[in-house]
Amino acid sequence: MERTPADVPVPATVVVPLANPDTAPGLLRLAAAVTRERGRVLGLSILLEDKGRDAEHERMERLEKACAAASNMRPDVEVDLVVARAATVTRGVLDTVAEEGADAVVLGIGRVTDETGLGEITTSILDAAPCDVLLYRTGQTTPLRKSKRVVAAVSPHDRDRRTAHLALLVAGALGVETRAVTVVDYEHTIAQASVRLGQQLDGLPGGDDCDRRLVHGNQPAQALLRQAADTELLVLGSARTKGQVHEETIRTVLDGFDGPLLINAPHARDRGVFDGRFRRIRPRLTEPEQDELVWQAERLAKTSPDYLVLSLVSALIASLGLLLNSTAVIIGAMLVAPLMTPLVALGVGVTAGRVGIARQSLATVLNGTGMILVASFVLGLLIQPDAPTSEMTSRSAPTLLDAGIALASGIAGGYATARRDIPAALAGVAIAAALVPPLCVVGLAAGIGQAQLALGALLLFTTNIVCIAAVSCLVFAWLGLRIQRHRRVESRSGWAVGMIAAVAGLLVAIVVLNADQTGFDRRRIISSIEETIPGISVQQVETSGISPVEVTATVTADSDPTPADATVIEGAVAEAIGSPVDLRLIVLPVVTPDGE
After folding, report:
1. Which structural domain range is residue 419 located in?
2. What is the CATH number of the domain that holds 344?
3. Which pairs count as long-range contacts for 365-369, CB under 8 Å and 24+ apart, including other chains?
4. Partners of residue 108 on adjacent β-strands
5. Does 505 reside within a domain?
6. How many domains does the chain fold into?
7. What is the pLDDT of residues 262-274, one digit of tens each?
8. Within this chain, do residues 340 and 226 fall inside the same structural domain, yes or no?
9. What pTM value is reported for the model?
10. Same domain, 334 and 424
11. In terms of Cα–Cα distance, which of 121, 75, 82 is closest to 100?
12. What's the alpha-carbon Rg for the chain, to the nearest Å?
């Protein structure tokens, strides 16, 4: 067996979406013909909704028989039928390609009359698939297996070397001859065209035995149509951009050829192994999915009565949980908090350049924020706790860990919103956990007169909400959402993203400085304790609150400190950090063996 040149990759895994059992045999045979030895062909049946069991059972039986027939044609290739559930056919195909690491997709196309000539599903897959796409249309009277010859259109383009190789592989599987046709314009000589055709076929298995034809013509499509009869399979290559095959030759052949047709639309070669793997794990949104996401954002951006009621309920539950110092109750409040929906709508509006959506969602966020603040403030005034609980003081200042939680929550929210198969409520809980408790602390602290505690919690809330909005914009951009210029929109998304990024950067810088200050204060606390009472060694320091700062120091000592020693230490710590201190000293016993 002849060896395939390294510059002509042969697919190892090919995905074949199957809907119609009548066309499945031809598609599977074609896929098996172009797959390498010991490769895989996956016949893909996508379930969108429940259908009649009898009809679906019969369809699956016919598809299984088609897979078995293709496997008999190529015993060295594994042909399997797989079933996937998806929201749309396009998403099911793209997800399967990514999960299986497919090198090619074989799509059956019909005679479509839209502006692309291919249909919406095919156009979306061409636009987003991270692999080669082969488009096959059966002849009006001649199926693939009855083709009497394979005719390949071969030009000097690199992709047409691969097109010629595909034609040779299919011809070998069908047991028919191959004809390579090059259309020569009047600016080149036959000799020059002959050399180029020879270079394209050089080293390809079966290339030496291929019938070669050189024909003159300034209209390549018409010249090709004269060389291929309706009983012959015509194979062409085409560039692929934004879901379309652009050559006028392709469109003319689609309209004028009645025989079986195969179009090779290769993916741009990846620059490296890492880049190729990265593309496969990126579930890029198709244009219909982008349109649906923007429509969904328009709906989520509105301030509805349900949104306001849930904001009020979540504020009441979270505030009571903070006052009770109950983590379980606070978590319960997150299950009903609705703040995620306008935040992700804001991200969509900014990324897609839809200023109206961004403005409306921002107003909705402010309405919910105001509702939560008022509810928690009123509870603080009514209940008047003796002192802030530890659940409240723990949210008195942002740290880098808090910023990390907000960033991760924003990623989850944006990704879950864009991907319909993922329950968005799961991400909503994470986002609410980063926003509602600190916002409730602001209201409660203001209600009980703890201004510094309120300001610290407000900084935490602001940092979290800006980080969530900024990272959701990045997630939508990574998934392929772009400014929608085909509609009447105000394209100010670049300015908006820049502003959000600047504010997020400023707040993160404040968090970093605050974290550094906290670390510096702890070092001064340790130093002041150990210098004040000789023989004391500080093992751990925990701080909370703002004024006074609650300091819990765990120490070991040669002799137990007295209450007077604790008072002296408290004064020294307060002087060291420049703030009133409420000290709690925990002394660990030190036990040594006898005689040591």
Report:
1. 287-491
2. 1.20.1080
3. 365/339, 365/465, 367/303, 367/307, 367/308, 367/311, 368/303, 368/307, 368/308, 368/311, 368/338, 368/339, 368/342, 369/439
4. 136
5. no
6. 3
7. 988 888 654 444 4
8. no
9. 0.65
10. yes
11. 82
12. 34
